[in-house]
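1st attempt posting a full record on here, be nice pls
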Amino acid sequence: MYQYTVPLKQIVEEAELKILYKASDYENIRLIVADVTRPALNLIGFMEHFEPMRLQVIGMVEHSFLSRMTPEERYVAFDRFFSYKIPALVYTRGLTPPEELVQMAKKHNVTVLTSTHPTAGLMANLIQSLSSHLAPRVTRHGVLVEVYGEGLLLLGESGVGKSEAAVELVKRGHRLIADDAVEIKQVAPNILVGNAPELIRHYVELRGIGVTNVAQLFGMGAIKESTNIDLIINITPWKDGEVYDRLGLENNEEEILDVKLPSITIPVKPGRNLAVILEVAAMNNRQKKMGYNAAQEFTNQINRHFEESMANRF
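the predicted structure (as tokens):
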């Protein structure tokens, strides 16, 4: 699988970190690990299982521990620690790093950063940002819209009406994320997030009209940068004689990036209001996640009716 990276410089800007010492290769440092570590044990020499590719963060606990060490002990500790050539060290809470730290960072050419944010909050933000930048991803041909808070990934062959349905949904107050190409990231074991490639973001292609900018036509409330993908909808041309699920009891799933998502197939033909159908699909999927399944309730009701009818006959 392709290994994604993100420049350290970009993370520094996003997290509003300040540079105390900039390594000579700062502009070229790229992060490849989403985890962030507090090196308490490492500062006393325990380096087993140490991951040098992670960002290292020092907070109040480590700072208090370091303040009890002699200058000579701090020299030894940071000389050993920085010899592993970590990408950067972040000092939090507006604390002032000891001089020995800065000197050893210069010796080993390691970037030192500072932040005024609390340690736990900063680490959470860093991990979230890194997880998003380094997440496995794939691009799918389709349309991604947010309908009643549900992310709908519309798939189907070209010309089936995906873009037209998206524009109709936007007119009905919903939001467009991507048209034609959807970048999908796995940000958690069971969560996929979709967004549009930067080059085509906010644009929709309508056959007969051409390319239109949804944000310019309908306002900024009609678009969204990204959304979780909650339901995959396969849109297919209606075929006479084809058997389609009429009750909704089938629990079909499709797998993207090893994540299984619920999926349904909607056949379309002239006269069917696809936008309304997609709205109902979004609300129905939301109900299922909240524990209510209308198809199952209807089936149970029918079964009870027949059971009562059979019981009354004998």
